[in-house]
Specification:
The complex is a heterotrimer of chains A (about 170), B (about 350) and C (about 500).
Chain A (H helix, E strand, L loop, with lengths): L27 H4 L9 H8 L22 E4 L4 E6 L9 H15 L5 E6 L7 H9 L1 H7 L3 H11 L13
Parallel strand pairs in A: 2-3
Antiparallel strand pairs in A: 1-2
Helix pairs in contact in A: 3-4, 3-6
Chain B lengths: L9 E8 L6 E6 L6 E5 L4 E6 L7 E7 L7 E6 L5 E6 L4 E5 L6 E6 L6 E6 L5 E6 L4 E8 L2 E8 L6 E6 L5 E6 L3 E8 L4 E9 L5 E6 L5 E6 L4 E7 L15 E8 L7 E6 L6 E5 L4 E6 L10 E6 L10 E6 L6 E6 L4 E7 L3
Chain C lengths: L6 H6 L1 E2 L4 H4 L16 E4 L5 E4 L5 E3 L7 H6 L4 E2 L2 H7 L2 H16 L8 E6 L1 H10 L4 H15 L3 E4 L1 H20 L11 E2 L4 H15 L9 H17 L6 E7 L3 H7 L4 E2 L4 E2 L3 E4 H10 L16 H4 L14 E2 L7 H14 L9 E2 L5 E8 L2 E10 L1 H12 L7 E5 L20 H14 L2 E2 L5 H10 L6 H7 L18
Parallel strand pairs in C: 1-5, 6-7, 6-9, 8-17, 9-12, 13-18, 16-17
Antiparallel strand pairs in C: 2-3, 3-4, 10-11, 14-15, 15-16
Classes of the chains: A alpha+beta (about 170), B mainly beta (about 350), C alpha/beta (about 500).
Protein name (chain C): Probable cytosolic Fe-S cluster assembly factor GI11683
Keywords (chain C): 4Fe-4S, Iron, Iron-sulfur, Metal-binding
GO molecular function, one term (chain C): metal ion binding
Chain lengths: ~170, ~350, ~500
């Protein structure tokens, strides 16, 4: 059962916050248009770190839901594997968060990439079911045609990068 | 590359058909083979035909629009070739015909709660089946002109149902599901009740598609688990001594082809002329399998004999494959890259 | 737990795989208490949730309860989760009330005692009669004996409520049909309302479009509820709040019906039917107590109605099981059609035969006058036939005047919570046995029941009075599709 405390009906009201990573350092080679630079983990992480949690005014990075070390890229093989960690093991938002990550990567990456989004092993009670649903491209495609759902996803994806001034911590 | 190109079978690229915007989900041939139909994310059904005779190039002939509000997932021709059914994520199935001279949607089958994933006509043309994420399989009967009545709502599956196909000769319906199983249904003649008569369990993830062989004695299935499986029916009193409880035919998995596909296998097509099996895979490749000559009927061996890897392949997931009904070895495929491609299988002979 | 529901609910709304904690989309109303910052939620060994503040104080968190009525008002699933059903509508709950009453009796606390009333529908009696190889009247008396042995004060048949339901349905139809001639466009076909599975499906799936077609007449269960909680007190002198009313029914859907807010007086917290128990649950109860119905000593079925009405006539069916003309689901189509043929077209000998259409669960009867069809009635059972009917209605191609609709194939005799066939018996065979038993019951006509007239005159202030419509009719509510995207299933 959903536990209830005060305030809005939220499952994890007081999540632990994590420090944001420093901005990526841009190397001279990257600025050089003549050099083809392959995608790396940091780039993938940068794409998804600012996705907002559907329930909190916090980014997935600040909640430690996504981490750079859990973004695996094989540019040669065209594969990207992202693993994410819901804040609590029975988080009902886990599927939606996974969908947001998938959609963000779908929008931002060249179509040659095969993207896999999964839950960190043992991080959720319905891990297998959620992974299966996120891997089903037909279900994802249909979900993206649901106007109610896409509205929420867009709010999460296109939210301005949160800053600490926005977050009031007592 | 072989030094003797004629000595090995090949899948020769014939032509690419461009037109769809966004993902192309499905291709389907008209039963006479003169029309190819495709559909996808752009909510448009495209009809392709040849320019000047059978040998000519394939070009877009007509588009059917405004039938659906969301992605069109599958298109299927009635055996008589007069009706085209299209199933959509908008929860409806549309029936199109050309009675007025142009293709028009003259009936809509409503009732599914959400996305309709597949639609198929039975051989008689009097019955069709649809399936949906709502976990149900529906059987519809043609009641009268442009009137379709629901004859059964089958809720045997516990998850999303991905595909329905009919047995080539008998009124037996097979369905494949996200619940990892394939089920078969038939009507009890005593009370016109459709019931589940077999459950085929062996895949370890979503079964995306299924296809019967020409005689309906075998079924090929493909899955998110990356395998292709061949199932064989054993009738009551079979020579092999396979027990058939309740006098119902039993389907056994007689072959599993694994380690070939590197991602989800989204579609399978069994050619009723050549016996070849084609698969559509999430690794962008179309593959062709052939049963070996010395194959044991109860433990058949299927070999990968050709694929689209060599040239002009799709650049994204392949979603659908369909063998031409009369030209042996002619194959169409549809992909996430939006293209429809035509291929010709060339045997070594 | 799901098996007892009708197929319709299982197909469209009932989700066997979820528990409320996992996927229930019903937004939970949370009491505003001072937000404790910095606290962590921990799961205890017993599964309860505890908030631990930064200071180390632990506060046990409340569980959120989802009731069946919440499920009815929600566009999501109807959960079959045991935890939901168990709260109000279970054998355990019923026996708990029985036991509590027993203890009050022993303690001599007469004033706190409840009057326990059990109303028994005909279909579960037949189901149990077949299960325990008893003659139906005998099974009924033994069932009465069982309930009395565990603490029931009164055991009732439901004939009076069935009669009232049929007659109100008939009046409603006549009114709608007659209004055709004065130019207004009445909602025809009139669709019956006694099957709660069908009503629930209509409210959730077809909403405001179909609801005006549905008869506003309460089902026999809910009319019985009104009689027990409103009329019975005038005889027995009990306050309605002191009556615990159990209804024995062939289907779990009836539990949902009893939970509807329309049948719940919130101010006094009085429900017309407190608990619904079904045939399968009774079979389980007997089994768990190592009982066979055939070994339970019989007892009379009560008939308290006469005391409240100065009825001098003999009630022939008193204390026995009777059947109505037509289907084992109450015979709505037969009754209304025969009455309509007579009243509207003066045809008292019309031979009304419902002939099978596409399948045995779709039947039709017509009345012709001068070669023209003047009345077209149908009986539609099971989801596929309901579905086809809805599609025809939407396309304006439904030519019927009246349709008796039941969610279960073969109707209520084959209700979702009837006793399952024994090993080696087909469901079909069992259903035809039950249909045969029903047709062999003494035939009863609502119009010839003197008690009905007494109820109308002495209690309801006449047929068609405000009191009649308040007590014998109800209303339906379209369920809005939920659009809070956070919980959309995809």
């Amino acid at each position: 059962m959903t536990p209830s405390t005060g305030g809005p009906a939220m499952e994890n009201q007081n999540p632990t916050l994590y420090k944001r990573a420093a901005d990526r350092e841009i190397t001279p080679a990257e600025l050089d248009n003549n050099v083809v630079d392959p995608f790396d983990a940091r780039e993938i992480f940068d794409l998804i770190r600012n996705i907002n949690d559907p329930e909190h005014p916090l980014s997935l990075e600040e909640l430690n839901v996504v981490e750079e070390r859990l973004c695996l890229v094989n540019d040669q093989q065209n594969t990207i594997d992202v693993t994410f960690t819901p804040t609590i093991p029975h988080c009902s938002m886990a599927t939606l968060i996974g969908l947001c990550i998938r959609v963000k990567l779908l929008h931002a990456l060249p179509p040659r990439f095969k993207v896999t989004v999964k839950i960190s092993p043992g991080a959720h009670v319905s891990e297998a079911a959620i992974n299966k649903q996120l891997a089903d491209k037909e279900r994802v495609a249909a979900a993206l045609e649901n106007s109610h759902l896409i509205k929420v996803i867009n709010e999460c994806i296109f939210a301005a990068p949160p800053t600490f001034s926005k977050i009031i911590r007592n | 590359m072989s030094s003797e190109p004629q000595a090995v079978p090949t899948l020769k690229f014939v032509q690419v058909l461009k037109g769809h915007r966004g993902r192309a989900w499905n291709v389907s041939w008209h039963p006479q083979g003169n029309l190819l139909t495709s559909c996808g994310e752009d909510k448009i059904i495209r009809l392709w035909g040849t320019e000047g005779g059978a040998e000519g190039k394939w070009v877009e002939k007509t588009t059917l629009t405004d039938g659906h509000e969301r992605t069109i997932r599958e298109v299927s021709w009635s055996p008589c070739g007069k009706y085209l059914a299209s199933s959509s994520f908008d929860a409806t199935t549309a029936i199109w015909d050309k009675k007025s001279g142009e293709y028009e949607c003259n009936a809509t089958l409503e009732g599914h709660e959400n996305e309709v994933k597949s639609v198929a006509w039975a051989r008689s043309g009097q019955v069709l089946a649809t399936c949906s994420r709502d976990k149900t399989v529906w059987v519809w009967e043609v009641a009268e002109e442009d009137e379709y009545e629901c004859a059964a709502v089958l809720n045997a599956h516990t998850q999303d149902v991905k595909k329905v196909v009919w047995h080539p000769n008998d009124e037996i319906l097979a369905s494949a599901s996200y619940d990892n199983t394939i089920k078969m249904f038939r009507e009890d003649p005593s009370d016109q009740e459709w019931t589940c008569v077999a459950t085929l369990a062996s895949h370890t993830s979503t079964v995306w598609s299924i296809a019967f062989n020409k005689t309906g004695t075998r079924l090929a299935s493909c899955s998110d688990d990356g395998t292709l499986k061949i199932w064989q029916v054993y009738l009551p009193g079979n020579q092999e001594g396979i027990s058939t409880p309740d006098g119902q035919p039993v389907w056994k998995c007689v072959s599993t082809i694994s380690g070939v596909h590197t991602r989800s296998v989204y579609d399978v097509a069994w050619c009723h002329q050549t016996g070849l099996i084609a698969t559509a895979c999430g690794d962008d490749i179309v593959r062709i399998f052939q049963e070996t000559l010395d194959s044991d009927p109860n433990q058949p061996t299927f070999n990968l004999v050709a694929s689209s890897v060599a040239s002009h392949g799709h650049t994204q997931d392949v979603n659908s494959v369909a063998w031409h009904p009369t030209v042996p070895g002619l194959l169409a495929s549809a992909s996430d890259d939006g293209d429809i491609r035509l291929w010709q299988f060339l045997d070594s002979s | 737990m799901t098996a007892g529901f009708s197929g319709v609910l299982q197909l469209t709304d009932l989700d066997d795989f979820i528990t409320p904690s996992q996927e229930c989309i019903k937004p939970v109303v949370v009491e505003k208490i001072k937000s404790v910052t910095g606290s962590k939620i921990k799961i205890q060994d017993d599964g309860s949730y505890v908030a631990v503040t930064e200071g180390g104080q632990a506060q046990k968190l409340q569980r959120v309860d989802i009731s069946l009525n919440d499920c009815l008002a929600c566009s999501g699933c109807i959960t079959s989760a045991e935890s939901v059903l168990i709260t109000q509508q279970s054998q355990e709950e019923m026996l708990k009330v029985f036991k509590a009453n027993e203890q009050l009796k022993e303690a001599g606390k007469e004033s706190e005692l409840k009057l326990i009333v059990v109303s028994v529908a005909v279909q579960p009696v037949l189901s149990l009669a077949v299960r325990y190889e008893l003659e139906p009247q005998d099974a009924f008396r033994r069932l009465s004996g069982y309930f009395k042995s565990v603490g029931a004060d009164i055991v009732l048949d439901m004939t009076l409520s069935e009669d009232l339901s049929l007659l109100e349905c008939e009046n409603e139809f006549m009114e709608r049909f007659r209004s055709k001639s004065d130019g207004s466009k009445p909602h025809l076909p009139m669709l019956t309302s006694s099957c709660p599975g069908w009503v629930c499906y209509a409210e959730k799936t077809h909403g405001s479009f179909v609801l005006p077609y549905i008869s506003t007449t309460k089902s026999p269960q809910q009319i019985q509820g009104t009689l027990v909680k409103q009329f019975l007190p005038t005889i027995q002198g009990h306050h309605p709040g002191k009556i615990y009313h159990v209804s024995v029914e062939p289907c779990y859907d009836k539990k949902l019906e009893a939970s509807r807010s329309d049948f719940h007086n919130e101010a006094e917290d009085i429900k017309d039917v407190d608990c619904v128990i079904t045939s399968v649950e009774l079979e389980q109860m007997f089994k768990s107590q190592d009982l066979r119905l055939s070994e339970i000593p019989p007892a009379d079925v009560d008939f308290p109605w006469l005391d409240g009405l100065n009825c001098s006539e003999q009630i022939s069916y008193k204390g026995t099981l009777v059947g109505h003309q037509g289907t084992g689901s109450g015979g709505y189509a037969d009754h209304v059609m025969a009455s309509a043929a007579q009243e509207l077209f003066g045809d008292s000998n019309a031979e009304l035969k419902f002939k099978v259409l596409r399948n045995p669960d779709m039947r039709e009867a017509t009345l012709e006058k001068d070669g023209k069809v003047v009345l077209r009635f149908a009986i539609a059972n099971g989801f596929r036939n309901i579905q086809n009917l809805m599609q025809k209605l939407k396309r304006g191609k439904c030519a019927y005047d009246f349709v008796e609709i039941m969610a279960c194939p073969s109707g209520c005799l084959n209700g979702g919570a009837q006793v399952r066939p024994e090993e080696g018996t087909q469901q079909k065979e069992l259903t035809s046995t039950l249909e045969k038993l029903y047709s062999e019951l003494p035939l009863h006509s609502p119009k010839l029941n003197p008690l009905v007239h007494e109820i109308y005159t002495n209690w309801l202030g006449g047929a068609g009075s405000d009191k009649s419509s308040a007590n014998l009719h109800t209303s339906y509510h379209a369920v809005e599709k939920m659009s809070t995207a956070l919980n959309i299933k995809w």
